C-alpha cells in the first residue's frame, strides 16, 4: 500500500528522531520517502511506485510505501530542518528503507531497478 504521512507521523519523528514503529514496521519491507512536490526527480519516482507495489505483491512480499511532500505543509520549515540535521540529508527525494522495522538503507533519487534492489524485491 502507498500512504501519505500525516502531520502527527512527522511530529513524532521530529520529537523522537525516527518515525514510529507502526510506520517503520508496518510491513516486512517499508519505504519512507521525504520530498517536496516541485521536485522533478520525485515526479519520476512517484510514477513508478505503483509498479514497485505490484512487483512486491506478485512476489508475495509484504510491502508498504509512505511519503510526504512536506513543502505543502504549514510546518514544512521545521520538518525540513529535522530531515537535514537529524537524518543528515539535504537532498530530495530522501528515501529510507526498512526491513522488519529496522533501517536497512538510505538513498536519494533512484531509478526503479535500484529501488527494487534496495527493498529486496526481485525484478
Characterization of the model:
The chain is an alpha/beta fold. The protein has a single domain, classed as Glutaredoxin, CATH 3.40.30.10. Helix content is 42%, strand content 24%. It has helices spanning 7-16, 21-24, 40-58, 76-86, 112-119, and strands spanning 2-4, 29-35, 63-69, 94-99, 102-107. It is globular, with a radius of gyration of 13 Å. The mean pLDDT is 95.
Question: Which structural traits does this protein have?
Answer:
single chain; globular; 5 helices; Glutaredoxin; alpha/beta; 5-stranded mixed β-sheet; 123 residues
What is the domain total for the residues?
1
Structural class of the secondary structure composition?
alpha/beta
The CATH superfamily is known as Glutaredoxin
Percent strand equals: 15-25%
CATH C-level category: Alpha Beta
Strand/helix succession: EHHEHEHEEH
**Rg from alpha-carbon coordinates:** 13 Å
Q: Kindly report the average pLDDT value.
A: 95
Shape: globular
The fold-level CATH name is: Glutaredoxin
Give the helix proportion (percent range).
Answer: 40-55%
Distance between the termini: 19 Å
Number of helices: 5
Largest sheet: 5 strands, mixed
Outline the low-pLDDT stretches: none
> Widest sheet: strand order?
1-3-2-4-5
Number of strands: 5
Could you say what the CATH architecture is?
A: 3-Layer(aba) Sandwich
Amino acid at each position: 500500500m502507498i500512504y501519505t504521512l500525516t502531520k502527527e507521523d512527522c511530529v513524532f519523528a521530529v520529537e523522537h528522531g525516527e518515525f514510529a514503529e507502526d510506520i517503520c514496521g508496518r510491513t516486512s519491507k517499508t519505504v519512507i520517502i521525504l520530498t517536496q512536490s516541485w521536485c522533478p526527480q520525485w515526479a519520476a519516482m512517484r510514477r513508478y511506485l505503483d509498479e514497485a507495489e505490484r512487483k512486491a505483491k506478485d512476489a508475495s512480499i509484504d510491502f508498504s510505501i509512505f511519503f510526504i511532500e512536506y513543502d505543502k505543509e504549514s510546518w514544512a520549515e521545521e520538518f525540513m530542518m529535522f530531515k537535514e540535521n537529524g537524518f543528515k540529508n539535504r537532498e530530495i527525494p530522501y528515501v529510507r528503507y526498512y526491513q522488519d522495522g529496522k533501517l536497512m538503507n538510505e538513498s536519494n533519487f533512484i531509478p526503479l531497478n535500484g529501488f527494487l534492489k534496495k527493498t529486496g524485491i526481485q525484478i
